[in-house]
Structure formats: structure tokens, C-alpha cells
Amino acid sequence: MSGLTTGLLVAALASGMAQANSAAEDEATIDLAWDSGCFNCHDLDATLRGPAWRDVAERYRDDDTALKRLVITVRDGGSGNWGDERMTPNRRVAEEDIERLVSWLLSLSPAND
Fold this sequence. Notes:
globular
């Protein structure tokens, strides 16, 4: 095999492994969201009591301060950003888990991608 062919093969394998890791990370994060009670009020694509996560990702996509602010909102609760419904505090969820969940949902692509 030429160096170029070997390099392309290694890149393709690495890309496939990254996608597999991403899928595993997505599944673990979704499990964490279920365990944390997030799906009681939220859904990936549909508005329930709270906004769909893809809508949140879209709204805050270019906001560099969103992660920090949303972690605080998830932890302490809040209202007024998505209508009249109040988000209840989630103080029983570990701060690092909240940050992981918010980071993940902010990385979501729009529904039509």
C-alpha cells in the first residue's frame, strides 16, 4: 500500500471510530437525561412542557455564554425564555451532569440536517 492509501485508510477508520464514539456518547447522555428526569418536560424534537432541545440548540447556537447561563437555569430553574411555563430547579442532578447534558444539547443539529 502506498503512503497516501495508508493515510486515507487510517483517516477513514478514525472517522468511523469517532462516529461510533459519538453515537455511544449520545446514547449515554440520553440515558443520563432519562435518569435525571429531563424527558418529563423536554423532547429532542417536540415541544412539551418545555422547549424541544433542537430548538434550544438553534436559539443559542452562536452564543458563547449560553453554556454557563443554561447550566445555571437548569440547576436553579427559571422562566420567561420560552413562554410562561416555569422550569423547575434540578438541584438533585450533579453540576457536572448538568453541564454534560447542556453541552450535548447545544451541539445538536437542526431537525432537518
